[in-house]
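Bug: token stream looks shifted between consecutive jobs. Job 1:
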Amino acid sequence: MKIPRTRIPGTRIPGTRIPSTRIPSTRIPSTRIPSTVWALGVVSLLMDLSSELVHSLLPLFMVTVLGASMLAVGVVEGIAEATASIVKLFSGALSDRLGRRKPIVVLGYGLAAISKPLFPLAASVPLVLAARFMDRIGKGIRGAPRDALIADVTPEGVRGAAYGLRQALDTVGAVLGPLAAIGLMVLLASDVRSVLWWAIVPAVLSVVVLVVFVKEPEGAARPLGRLSLHSFTGLGKPCWTVIALGAVLTLARFSEAFLVLRAQDLGLALAIVPIVLVVMNVAYTAIAYPAGLAADRGHRKALLFWGLLALVAADLVIAATASVSFLFLGILLWGVHMGLTQGLLSTLVADAAPENLRGTAFGVFHLVSGVAMLPASVIAGALWDGYGAAWTFYAGAAFTTLALVGLLLVRAEAATK
């Protein structure tokens, strides 16, 4: 007589197969954003809180306290951003050469933190320029290696979400910074110098979080060795197409300092002028992460198109309005433009660049975009001084329209597929 075989739970009878309740062992790509990206997002949040606290008040500080002209504001902003971008080229290439990202990122954030006390100490426009120059050097050093590190640790299928998340957290800081500026201006009786001292606290915290919580995996980037001209020519045509696209978008969009000055021009009270950047960055934050998800799902051309269209609408509204209420509609549209395009551009660079040249690719991208920011901001300041505020934004709308037409003509296939 055959005795039926029974199985006690947790045991196995030889020669029998136990049905598995687990998912078959085929590899499913991870859709989880790595903890390193979250940590870098918090670092960006804290530093941007500090930087935007300063940035939301700096144009007013220069014009009302130091007596600077609008052209001087444009020159300072343009030089600062161009400097940051030039440094990004070398820091990105250096991170490729060393095969390490984090030490360079720490240096960049540390330098930005050290620069913060210089702003309240400044007694003239050249000293503000020196402080802004140092701050942007720090930004330049950290930018390309940080973006390359995100690409190193993130699977290709979720890179849009990863860059969107970091950008969204960065922009949360950009919301909190102006809000902190408003609160401190009220508490400190609109004493701009006293408010600027508070920017030191989140800047220091940012560096602490970076040092303690950001982990660079071993072998995240293979050392490149000696850099040469081939390091740049080896980026390939798709990568250069994305770089050119970034330059076009930057030429169409000058420094946000002019948004703050436009609000004051329309009569917004000095103590609450930083609310302009709050509104812009709320829209930016709300759009950035969903835009990253949309980029991962193949909607990149649509993001570019609607992003440029939003900037045209923003410029026209800000130029034509004499009402603070309509000004904020334009500011909101400006934030929508930023949310649709900024994370997308980082995703395009990460996907188009060769793996061992990611730092170099981000460096070149930021260099070209930053160099474009210099003439854009200088022209904006000159138009404001010569013809009035409206012409600054009408010119922005005209250039953005040309950029949009150009993108439609060439279809931007290499950069968006």
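Job 2, same session, no restart:
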Amino acid sequence: MADRTSLERLRAANRRAVLGALVGHGPQSRADLARSTGLSRTTISGLVHDLIAAGQAVETTERGRPHKGGSGRPPLLVAATALHGAVAGIDIGHHHIRVAIADQNGAVLAEEAQAVDVDDHGSAVLDRVTRMVRSLTGASGIEPAQLHGAGLCVPAPIDRRSAQIRSGVMPGWRDLAPADQLAERLGVPVAADNDANLGALAELHHGVAHGVGDFAYLKLASGVGAGLVLGGRLYRGATGIAGEIGHVQITEHGRVCRCGNRGCLETEVSVPRLLEHVQPTHTQPLGAEQLLALDADGDPGVRRVLGDAGRTVGRALADLCNSLNPTMLVIGGPLCSATSLLDGVRAAVDRYAQPNTAAAVRVAPAALGDRAEITGAIAMAIARAALAD
């Protein structure tokens, strides 16, 4: 029975991966699906058959091109069945809530953001999210029955076994199952994941990593986290905390981290920490936007701080590259376009990763900026809603 249950879960996960690829990338051939998901052609054929039988996908009359310009008859394409109605995407950060209502194609119909102190107020924040979703649904002209689900982004890892937040970085959310709690309030299915994972998902479907099968997305913000995409699919690990690179120890005698350990990566390179380094040399209050402008203008102090931060991050990413051999490292967060930061990451990867591994990996800024998490939440909601139909 246990083996049968495990196989059913694996097949369900594979169906979600295939449907997610169709929702995110549009119509594809079976061969394209095999390449983008890492599944075998035989497995893809069976899953596509199941999705068509369930009315979740259709085989179109449109034909694609043979792979790499090969000869032969162009393959038929498979497309996800259009979802009628809308979904909600919810991005909860440490200091903000952003809610968007989107149609079945991911186009945003209405959106609102509010500045909120989130970490100590789990239930109250979910109450506020509920009010925002209902208000925006009405403003979009969407009937309550047409809301098919929601995708929820939180800035903390979610335990896959219990669906709860176990981390102490958000005290008011500890042992709370955010997806279950919000589903009770909204009356629709809710899927939840952490911000780095959803940033990776967004960059995979709509950003700089579109079509890339193996990459790491690093979010450098008030904390530091990574989302891992392996074989075209988000990799969460056994309990859902894969990618917690911000809590790699980089110095034994460093600051105490909010996780309880000492000398974690995020205690040295988080955006608040970098601002703390730079602020004494400037009379005006600085934020991330000012750091970017100063870096672009060639400010030597800012370039030094961001370059050092990039090399520190790159040292940790080099170890990740040696283990996973990714095609790309995508740097996200409010400083993702800082040239000094990116150059520092590149230099450290070149120095500390194996030469062949370093040569194979590209370091690139994220394309979606602060839209990554809400975009990923919407994409997750559409994929889950399509599976539930």
